[in-house]
Structures are given as structure tokens and as C-alpha cells.
């Protein structure tokens, strides 16, 4: 359900406005009305800084904490952040230097380790050593007769050699070798370059070690710094949304407060004699949305928020789609063994990571649904229990369903959810516009449910064909009036009739497509069972005829195969029910959406 909101308008004397903001931030229930959506330059800079601090904090989460006696200097969160940024810059510079030196290393490897001082000393005496290479096939032996050459070695199809040459003091008079390339080598020897790379690696290890130490010792300070920045941004936003009145002597601010959280704020306002007005929202107001559901439905709010939040004057559909989504997931995965695995994994992870308790609880419910549907279809890790010769299962096989029955069940569930969605649409329209606007939807419900009941009663022989025909005409008449003539209370009959015909065309084609969409539940359930069966067959047929390696290979194939199946089938079982929920169910329930989440002006809760 959606918690009702009240609009608060505050008028505060400018001298006490700063204290007023501090107090309502401590109370932490006012969602400030966003009228000025263009942030100031300071706010933009602060937001970018907050994003970067949050990025650094998330990076710290990925580091393995190291507790060491040499605790890093953590005097404040700002200093920790600045030090981490300095380390990041140094590491980036270190990386670029390593790339540069490794390039020089590759250049020097063919020449071996020699002393550049000897080369320079010879150069001072007028003897120049020039470095060349060329493809081995292009090297001409007569060069050795014509020039003073010395071959150093061959590498990767190239021959490397040096040419000794005299020249005048200005270096003029050199002769070139046609077909060979002169190389300009780094001014460091091979051993010097290796030493530089080793030093850079050691420096990088030291900086990396310092980051891991900070991940253990300094995260609380960094969290505190992030909270301070967020608090500063919230204060600047509150000032941005404040409007000065009476030549700036009175500050005017609007906000939203949930009905369930008004008491502490009202008490403070009365004690401080602050002038305020509290009222219910108008139809056109953009009211923030706060959901309040029971323990079961609350788990599915995260799924509903993947699409959109409702507006303040419509139904929250989360409690209504939650049981269906749980059912659809189990239907799509449909293997009792996989369901047990999900329940077990979620239970273990829930104990080790309490911060993910809500998500893991959702996974437990979805796993339980999978176990139920797996038992219903007789599938356990790809094994068809209906065909298995297990004595103690014989009494339960009568409750298991066949593939044909599974197909009918998927269609039946789809029809039920669509009709349920249309019923919710009646309620939704009645709340937002008025009951008279829902008459067309009521007409469709009468037509669909009435026609279905007549067909069922005739098929079961509960009524005679003549009686069924008469009841069907009554259903057609009542629903036709509602759909064609009373679909809008403020239009004339002719316009309503034309709109009704268009509605009939849209519903006739749309409903059929909506119902057929639920076949995907059947297809996913069957494909999951087939994949498991295929890997079971592979494990049995591909295992070697060996006492030790045979079972070992079979176990490896089963573990890898079923892991792939669980991942792929679970992904499909998660995504496709979302599609059925957000397209078929939301559309037939008349969901509008577009709500914005309730975000109170409050002191940020520290992160763990």
C-alpha cells in the first residue's frame, strides 16, 4: 500500500532558518518539494565530488582488507580520500612508466647487456658505433667486406648488427647501408632497464599494500566523510528550494511528510512556534511515494521498482503481483532439485551476508515455489519422477501433472491474472477518476467471466443449451451497454459508441495476445527439465568404463551441466515473469506509474 502524504508549508524568520533546517534534518521526515530543478554550480561540483568519493568507497569494498601492525595514517575521511586519489595517480603514472620501460626492454634484448659509457667514450675518440637491423634474408654478406660490421645476433627473423665508423667532430661523413634500418636505442643498458622495472614493481606493491591496509582501517572514516558531503549537498538543496518572502526576512519552504511520521515534526513545530500549514495533496501534486507492505510483499518491492513507482492516487500493485510472480518463477524453473539448491544457497548466504537478508529471503521464497512446482511436475535434477520406478513415490504420482496439463495450467493462470488485473483496474479507476469511469472495464469483466461460466455450465451439463443461450444473451446485452454506451460519463452516446467499437477491436486482439504470452511459462518449465535430462544422459553415456575415473567423470559432467542449467533457467525464470508482470498484468490493471520515491531531508545513515 501507499502511505498517505501531507503537504507542509513552512514560514520561518530568516535569522532562525539555519537552526530550523538542522532540526528538521535531525527529525528526518520531510521530503523537500523540488521546485527549482536546476542545481547551482557549487551543487554540481559537490555532486561530482560525492560520486568520486562513493566510487573510491566501492573500490575499497573490492579490496581484501589487510590488518597489519603498521596502521596507515587515518586522521580524517578527507585525508584518506586524498591519499587514495594520490595513490591512484601514482599507480597510473607507475603503469605508464612500466609500459615505457618494457618497450625499451624489448628494444635492448637483441643487443644484450652492454655499458653505454664505453660507447660514449669511443664516440669522444671519434669512433662511432651505429646500430642496425634488417630481415635475415636481406642481409648481404658483402656488407662485411665493404663496412666495419659486427653481427650481434638473430631474433624473430631479423639480424642485428653494429657498424663502426669514423667521422669528423660534427658527426658528418657517415655512409648509409641501403636495405638496413638504423636504430635509435634507449640510453640505458639492459640491466639498468630491468632495475627500473623491478623498482617500479616494488613501488606498485607498496602502494597496493597501503590500499589494502586502508580497506581494513580507514573505511569508517571514508564513510563518515561521504555522509558529511551528502549532508552538505542536502543542505544546499534545501536552501535552493527555499523562497524568500517579505524582502528576504521570511523563508518559505514546502515539503511532504508521511501520515505515519507526522507526530515528531508537529511537536517540534508547536514547541518552536513555527508557522506552518498542513494539508492533503491536490490531484495535480507530484507526491513522493512511500510503500508500506507486509513482510511477504515487501520482498517484491525491489522487483516492482525495476519498472516504476505508482503515483500517489492509485493502487500499489506489489502485494497483488507478488504471489503470481512467485508462482511464475517456480513454474518457469520447475525442478524440485534446483529449488532445493536455491533455498540452501540463499539460506547460507543470508547468514553470512546479513546486509542482503531481504534479497536472500526473496530467493528462498522463489526456491520454495520451484520445489512445489518441481514436485507437481515430477522433476528432480532432470530426473522424470513420473517414469522413475521408485516404490515410495507411487502414491504421490497421482497428484503429478503431465505436459499437456502443464500447458493448460499456464493458460489458466494467465487468464486468472488478466481478469484479476482488470478487477484491480476497476478499483484503480474508481479511486483516481470515479466509479462511473470504470463501467466499461466492468462490462468487459461481465462479458469474459459471464461467457466463461456459461460455457463451463453447459459443458458440465449443469444447465440446458436453451438456458445457456438465454443467459449468454443477457451477458451480451449488459456488457454491450456498458462497453459501447457508458464507457465515459461526460461524452454523448454517439462518441461513446465509436470509442466502444475501437475498444472492442483493441481488447479482442490484445487479450488473445496477452493470454498466449503465458505459454512462455510452459515452454520455460519444459526446457529446464529437458536440459537437466540431457546432462544426465551425457553423464551416463560419456563416463569411461573405469572403477575410479568413470564415477569421477560422471560427477564432473553432472556438476558442470546442472550448474549451467540452473544459471540459464534461473535467469529465464527471473526475467520472463517480470515481462508478464509489467506488460500483461500492469496493462490490464490500468497502472499509470511515474511516482518518485520518498527521500526525506535527514542525516545520512552511516554505511557499514
**Structural class by SSE content:** alpha+beta
Number of helices: 19
- Uncertain segments of ≥5 residues (pLDDT<50)? none
For the record, the count of structural domains works out to 4
How much β-strand is present in the residues? 5-15%
Mean pLDDT: 87
Q: Brief overview, please?
A:
The chain has helices spanning 17-27, 41-62, 77-108, 116-124, 142-146, 190-217, 219-240, 262-271, 295-298, 301-304, 318-333, 336-352, 357-377, 403-432, 439-460, 465-485, 493-517, 519-542, 549-588, and strands at 5-13, 31-32, 127-135, 148-155, 158-166, 181-183, 243-245, 250-258, 275-279, 288-289, 379-380, 383-384, 596-597.
Task: Describe this entry's structure for a reader.
The structure is a single chain. With 608 residues, the chain is α+β, with helices and mostly antiparallel strands. The protein folds into four domains: 1-35 and 241-290, Alpha-Beta Plaits (2-Layer Sandwich), CATH 3.30.70.240; 37-104 and 194-236, no CATH class; 114-188; 295-389 and 397-588, no CATH class. The chain is built from 19 helices and 13 strands. The chain has helices at 17-27, 41-62, 77-108, 116-124, 142-146, 190-217, 219-240, 262-271, 295-298, 301-304, 318-333, 336-352, 357-377, 403-432, 439-460, 465-485, 493-517, 519-542, 549-588; strands at 5-13, 31-32, 127-135, 148-155, 158-166, 181-183, 243-245, 250-258, 275-279, 288-289, 379-380, 383-384, 596-597. Strands 1, 2, 7, 8 and 9 form a five-stranded antiparallel beta sheet that branches. It has a four-stranded antiparallel beta sheet with strand order 4-5-3-6. A hairpin with a 2-residue loop joins strand 11 and strand 12. Helix 2 runs antiparallel to helix 7 (219-240), helix 14 packs antiparallel against helix 15 (439-460) and helix 15 runs antiparallel to helix 16. The longest helix has 40 residues, at 549-588. It is extended, with a radius of gyration of 38 Å. The two termini are 30 Å apart. The mean pLDDT is 87.
Amino acid at each position: 500500500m501507499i502511505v498517505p502524504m501531507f503537504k507542509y508549508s513552512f514560514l520561518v524568520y530568516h535569522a532562525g532558518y539555519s537552526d530550523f533546517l538542522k532540526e528538521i534534518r535531525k527529525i528526518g521526515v520531510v521530503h523537500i518539494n523540488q521546485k527549482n530543478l536546476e542545481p547551482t554550480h557549487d551543487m554540481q561540483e559537490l555532486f561530482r565530488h560525492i560520486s568520486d568519493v562513493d566510487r573510491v568507497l566501492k573500490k575499497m569494498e573490492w579490496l581484501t582488507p589487510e590488518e597489519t601492525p603498521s596502521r596507515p595514517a587515518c586522521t580524517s575521511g578527507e585525508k584518506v580520500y586524498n591519499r587514495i586519489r594520490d595513490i591512484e595517480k601514482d599507480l597510473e603514472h607507475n603503469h605508464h612508466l612500466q609500459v615505457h620501460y618494457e618497450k625499451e626492454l624489448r628494444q635492448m634484448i637483441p643487443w644484450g647487456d652492454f655499458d653505454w659509457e664505453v660507447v660514449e667514450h669511443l664516440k669522444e675518440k671519434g669512433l662511432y658505433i651505429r646500430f642496425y637491423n634488417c630481415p635475415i634474408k636481406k642481409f648481404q654478406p658483402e656488407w662485411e667486406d665493404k663496412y666495419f660490421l659486427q653481427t650481434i645476433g638473430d631474433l624473430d627473423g631479423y639480424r642485428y648488427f653494429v657498424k663502426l665508423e669514423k667521422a669528423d667532430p660534427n658527426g658528418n661523413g657517415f655512409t648509409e647501408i641501403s636495405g638496413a634500418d638504423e636504430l635509435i636505442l634507449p640510453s640505458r643498458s639492459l640491466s639498468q632497464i630491468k632495475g627500473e622495472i623491478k623498482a617500479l614493481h616494488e613501488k606498485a606493491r607498496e602502494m597496493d599494500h597501503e590500499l589494502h591496509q586502508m580497506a581494513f582501517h580507514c573505511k569508517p572514516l571514508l564513510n563518515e566523510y561521504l555522509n558529511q558531503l551528502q549532508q552538505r549537498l542536502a543542505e544546499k538543496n534545501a536552501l535552493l528550494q527555499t523562497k524568500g518572502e517579505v524582502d528576504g526576512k521570511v523563508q518559505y519552504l514546502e515539503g511532504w511528510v508521511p501520515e505515519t511520521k507526522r507526530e515528531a515534526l508537529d511537536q517540534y513545530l508547536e514547541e518552536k512556534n513555527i508557522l506552518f500549514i498542513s494539508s492533503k495533496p491536490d490531484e495535480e501534486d507530484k507526491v513522493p511515494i512511500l510503500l508500506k507492505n507486509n513482510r511477504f510483499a515487501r520482498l517484491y518491492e525491489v522487483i516492482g521498482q525495476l519498472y516504476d513507482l505508482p503515483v500517489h492516487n492509485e493502487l500499489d500493485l506489489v502485494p497483488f503481483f507478488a504471489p503470481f510472480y512467485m508462482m511464475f518463477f517456480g513454474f518457469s524453473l520447475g525442478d524440485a532439485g534446483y529449488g532445493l539448491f536455491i533455498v540452501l544457497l540463499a539460506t547460507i548466504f543470508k547468514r553470512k551476508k546479513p546486509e542482503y537478508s531481504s534479497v536472500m529471503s526473496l530467493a528462498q521464497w522463489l526456491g520454495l515455489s520451484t520445489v512445489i512446482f518441481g514436485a507437481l511436475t515430477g522433476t528432480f535434477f532432470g530426473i522424470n519422477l513420473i517414469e522413475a520406478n521408485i516404490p515410495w513415490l507411487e502414491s504421490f504420482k497421482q497428484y503429478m501433472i503431465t505436459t499437456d496439463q502443464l500447458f493448460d495450467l499456464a493458460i489458466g493462470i494467465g487468464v486468472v491474472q488478466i481478469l484479476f488485473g482488470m478487477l484491480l483496474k476497476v478499483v484503480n479507476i474508481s479511486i483516481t477518476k470515479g466509479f462511473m469511469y470504470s463501467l466499461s472495464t466492468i462490462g468487459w469483466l461481465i462479458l469474459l467471466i459471464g461467457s466463461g461460466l456459461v460455457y463451463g455450465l453447459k459443458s458440465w451439463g449443469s444447465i440446458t443449451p436453451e438456458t445457456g443461450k438465454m443467459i449468454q444473451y443477457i451477458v451480451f446485452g449488459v456488457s454491450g451497454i456498458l462497453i459501447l454506451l457508458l464507457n465515459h460519463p461526460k461524452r454523448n452516446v454517439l462518441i461513446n459508441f465509436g470509442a466502444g467499437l475501437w475498444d472492442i477491436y483493441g481488447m479482442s486482439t490484445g487479450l488473445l495476445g496477452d493470454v498466449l504470452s503465458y505459454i512462455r511459462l510452459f515452454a520455460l518449465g519444459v526446457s529446464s527439465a529437458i536440459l537437466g535430462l540431457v546432462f544426465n544422459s551425457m553423464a551416463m553415456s560419456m563416463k569411461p568404463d573405469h572403477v575410479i575415473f568413470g564415477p569421477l567423470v560422471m560427477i564432473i559432467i553432472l556438476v558442470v551441466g546442472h550448474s549451467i542449467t540452473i544459471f540459464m533457467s534461473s535467469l529465464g525464470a527471473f526475467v520472463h515473469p517480470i515481462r508478464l508482470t509489467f506488460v500483461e498484468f500492469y496493462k490490464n490493471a490500468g497502472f499509470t506509474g511515474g511516482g518518485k520515491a520518498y527521500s526525506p531531508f535527514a542525516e545520512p545513515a552511516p554505511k557499514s
